[in-house]
Amino acid sequence: MKARNKRLIFVIVGVAGLAVAAGLVLNALNSNVAFFFSPTEVKADKAPKDRTFRLGGMVVDKSLKREDDGLTVHFQVTDKLETMDVTFVGILPDLFQEGQGVVAQGKLGSNGVFMADEVLAKHDETYMPPEVQDAIEKGEKANMQKNVSTN
In 22, 59, 81, 103, which residue has its Cα 20 to 30 A from 94's Cα atom? Predict the structure, then answer.
């Protein structure tokens, strides 16, 4: 076999190896991506049914209910237009409060309740995740347009 053919085979095998490695990396990254959805988008069936995603908005005042086991909590998240029920089993972050911004990561249950695996609360007095802020602003605009059209 000529040296030229050996180099060509070496280059082809190298490119194929890189393609396989890139495919594996992209597959791993895709399976770990959790997209953000607001309650309005979830109610409009834009969220995946069988994949993990993030739900964000404001915790509805007086919606927090704790079960007797001390770990299971139920609360509602709103974007000022739609409201979603959320169930979480675990210890809530110290900064978690009603009326504050929250992002919960989990899956949508068959009963329409969001089953959170992780709950993230804002970390200071003024910060709110950009996705949550955008969802709330969209909800407020939609509410204002709805109120104007009914009057």
Answer: 81
